[in-house]
Every structure is written in C-alpha cells, then in structure tokens.
Specification:
This protein is an alpha/beta fold. The protein is built from nine helices and ten strands. Helix 3 runs parallel beside helix 5. It binds adenosine-5'-triphosphate (ATP) and magnesium ion.
Length: 255
C-alpha cells in the first residue's frame, strides 16, 4: 500500500483580481518526506504556502491535509490540525527573549492566548517544551537574549524553532536559508534535518545545495503550475525543468 499523503493539492487556483497566479497546481506530498519547492521569482511559491496555511482562500480547487479538505478553515484551525509554517520574512518578537518567543509559540499551539495564566500546570508544560526546542535549535546559551539582538542566522534558527515548537507534524518553511553565508546555511540544513526528523517538510528554497542536501523530492513551480515533481537526480536531468525554469543549460541546477 502506498504511503498516506500529508498534503495534496488538486487543481488549485488562485487569482488576485483578474490575474491568475496559481493556475491549476497539483501536488502529492507523502507523510514523512522532505519536499523542496523551487521555481523562479514570482512563480507563486509563497502564494501556495499562503493557500495551504489558510492565509488565502483558493479561487477553486482543493487542499487536503491528512486526507481532510481544508476548505473554509482559518489559519489557526489548520495549525491545530498539525500544520505549521514559517514566513519568508523573519517573524519573531524582537523585544522578547529567545525563550519567551518559544514559549509563546508553544502556548499558542496549546490554545492559550490571553488566558494562559489560568493554568500553572500548562505553563510548566509549555516551559518544558520550550526548553526542549531551545536545546534542539542550539540557542540554549542565548535563552535570555532579546531576539532582536541575535545574529541574522540565529534569528532564522529561532524562527524554525518557533515553527516546530507546537509539535506540528507538517512543517512549511519559506526560504529558511535566504541571506545566509555558505557555512550558516550548511548549519541550517543540519538544523532543519534534525527538527523535521519523522515529520513532513515542505520547503521553498532557492539555494540548490540546500535543496539537494535535504530534499527527498523536488516540486518545480513555474508560472503557478507544478511542472515537475520527482527525485533530485531526475529533476536535475529533466530537460523541461532546465528549459522552463532556468532558461539555460544544466549547470545552473548543479550544486
Ligand atoms: N496578496 C497579493 N495580491 C496581489 N498579488 C499578489 C499577492 N501575493 C502575491 N501576489 C503576486 O503573485 C505572484 C506570485 O508571488 P509569490 O510571492 O507567490 O512568488 P514566489 O514564487 O514566492 O516568489 P519569490 O521567489 O520572489 O519569493 C507575484 O506576481 C506577486 O506579485
Ligand atoms: Mg516567495
């Protein structure tokens, strides 16, 4: 029997005004796989994430999470069903400490917002989970540092921690290594590998060494469609991908 799907897109479409940005996207992401989404600027990759996470409603088509249609669900409801995303732009509370940022993320996932002081037990639980994530992302010694004072790479690591803090089984990361040096992004690859162990990852990424280092499969999005979805080796060899996405010979897809 085939592996059940974590995410499935069926003929997904999204228009802004008269412009159709997502033009019949189809995708099947099995449980436990790491998927990279690649494609040129403006292809619609972040828009796909906004649709899957519920920030945008599709114009038509279906999005299934663990086989359940997400139509009409709001972002926090989708989050409760086990899907968590990061943003292309860093999205942390700069004045809160690293630890407080993580604890907020845990509390949010537990359904506590303004009333979380009501349960000290839950707070203790949240503290423990936040400490675990802190350890996982390697920022323990920065625990009390205001997040705004972290280096850029540390902030992105914290953001990944915030994304996984709630225990979601399906993780969406939008350009997690953008703006990093080679050694920083090598480090980020190891971090992403660790925090997504046993989970499903969908990651938009431009850096081919990150893509080839992490992805079990690559989905190529061009002009609002998934034009190819295959193993890294086969995508690299795919003439259609080289032509449509790169417009140049194969070396642009080399590591
Ligand atoms: N809320 C919106 N309203 C109108 N147009 C939008 C909106 N969001 C995105 N677009 C347009 O949709 C297209 C796809 O944008 P999107 O951000 O999804 O691309 P992307 O593949 O993530 O690109 P990049 O690699 O540069 O991040 C762009 O032309 C963009 O201007
Ligand atoms: Mg984008």
């Amino acid at each position: 029997m085939s592996v059940p799907l974590a995410i499935e897109l069926r003929d997904l479409r999204k228009s802004f005004g008269k412009t159709e940005i997502i033009r019949g996207a189809n995708l099947k992401v099995p449980h436990g796989q790491r998927f990279a989404i690649i494609g040129p600027n403006g292809a619609g990759k972040s828009t796909l994430f906004n649709l899957i996470s519920g920030a945008f409603a599709p114009t038509s088509g279906e999005i299934l999470l663990n086989g359940h249609n997400l139509a009409g669900l709001r972002p926090f409801e989708i989050n409760r069903r086990g899907l968590s995303r990061s943003f292309q732009i860093t999205n942390i509370f700069h004045r809160l400490s690293v630890f407080e940022n993580l604890r907020c993320a845990v509390l949010y996932s537990l359904g506590y917002r303004y009333s979380f002081w009501q349960s000290l037990e839950k707070l203790a639980d949240a503290r423990e989970r936040a400490e675990n994530v802190l350890e996982l992302i390697g920022l323990k010694r920065r625990s009390e540092t205001p997040a705004g004072l972290l280096t850029y790479a540390e902030q992105r690591a914290l953001e990944i921690g915030i994304t996984v803090a709630g225990g979601a089984e399906v993780i969406l990361l939008d350009e997690p290594t953008a703006g990093m040096s080679r050694s920083e992004s090598d480090h980020a690859v190891e971090l992403i590998r660790t925090v997504t162990e046993g989970k499903t990852l969908l990651m938009v990424e431009h850096d081919m060494s990150v893509v080839f280092g992490l992805a079990d499969q690559i989905a190529v999005v061009v002009y609002g469609e998934v034009i190819a979805c295959d193993t890294p080796e086969r995508v690299r060899a795919n003439a259609k991908v080289q032509e449509a996405y790169l417009g140049t010979p194969a070396e642009a897809l080399d590591e």
